[in-house]
Amino acid sequence: MRIQAGAAASLAAVSVLAAALCGSVPAAADSAESQIRALLDGMNRSYNRGDFDSFAAHVCSELLRADGYRAGWYRSRRADGPTSITVNTVRVDGDGAFASVRFEAADHVRTLDVEFVREDGARGPEWKACRYHPAQAV
Questions:
Q1: In this structure, how many other beta carbons lie within 10 angstroms of the beta carbon of residue 26?
Q2: Tens digits of per-residue pLDDT, 42-91?
Q3: Residue 108 CB contacts under 8 Å (≥ 6 apart), including other chains
Q4: Burial readout 42-57 (b: 16 or more C-beta within 10 A, e: otherwise)
């Protein structure tokens, strides 16, 4: 699936919220679901620190290459301030997964479905957040 230029701007705004999720995923995570939950928590921590590089470590290469993604992330971070997340559900299907995540910023709340893929990383395949969609039933 390719990200269209128009979608990149909205994804960047959503990433600001998702950025609140960034951090390190523990190597000892025992299941795909726990790895994804840890990834989201780490992304949120990185987002709240304003640490784009740490956040980006948990985002798929396709999304990182989208026009305007980095600039949109910084705009969203400035607008949102600190955020918190609640992971409502995680569904894993092979090398893909979805999570329903509630993002809370000072002036808005939004629930999104976050799509994950597995990409090769330094330690083998790693889960990466790759797309954000308005909430649907997961």
A1: 13
A2: 999 999 999 999 999 999 999 999 999 999 999 999 999 999 999 999 99
A3: none
A4: bbbbbbbbebbebbbb
Phi, psi of 31 (to 5 degrees): -150, 160
Q: With H, G, I as helix, E, B as strand and everything else as coil, classify residue 138.
A: coil
Nearest alpha-carbon partner for 123 in 21, 18, 24: 24
SS3 23: coil
Query: How many angstroms separate the CA atoms of 125 and 109, rounded?
Result: 32
Q: Which domains does the chain have, with CATH numbers?
A: 5-134 (3.10.450.50)
**CA distance linking residue 130 with residue 79, whole number of Å:** 22
Question: Is-above-0.90 flag for pTM?
Answer: no
